[in-house]
Design brief:
five-stranded mixed β-sheet, palmitate
Amino acid sequence: MIKRQLLKSTLAIALAASIVTPLLAQDKPLKIGVTAGPHAQIFEQVKKIAEKDGLKIQIVEFSDYVQPNAALAAGDLDANSYQHKPYLDNQIKDRGYKFTAVGYTVNFPIGIYSKKVKSLKDLPEGGKVGIPNDPTNGGRVLLVLQDQGLIKLKPDAGLRATPLDVTSNPKKLKFVELDAAQLPRSLDDLDASAINTNYALSAGLNPGKDAIAQESAKSPYVNLIAVREADKDKPWVAKLVKAYQSPEIKTFIQTEFKGSVLAGF
């Protein structure tokens, strides 16, 4: 009789443990990496929506574009939300990351800013123009300058164009490649600089009013949520994407970030 009771007790404890363990696992918040500015602001709202669906989120802010992917690869993050597809593809190719995009989010058109001229046509001969030093965002800016008629690129340069692909440069513009986060600070020293929207807003710039040129809102640079390939089918991933692509987040983005383009909503 005593042995039977002990066996029942043991089974009951084991059953309770099997039930409690997954519950405890769900209590651990997901760590989501974002860059400071719009991506962080949006995810503060996503966090509220996700919590209604039982998903707890801890937002981790970064000041550059390199560390969020490094942290995801190291297992310090569960997902990140800050980069566009061309940048992710380039990172996977160059660094061998085993990442995948699980949902598209928003596109913030990159802008060109200046404290010295009011339009691109006013750039002086030999003027210095700051561009991001990563291949995808640098190429993105060169395409804008080509669309504005300032330069011409090799026909096959594509999205990863570099200054070496410039075939015509009537104003003899000089391209200064800097880390994207440093470009707002370069405005005092350069004739113009191309700045990603998140860094522009953090620097107090208004993309709609202060940019002297912007890329088309229909560019291919749509941002996304990235996870490790091994995690892409986990239930929390679908919940996270659903929270981001909710009507509430759509309204928030359209209200707070006019001129941005939504994707996947």
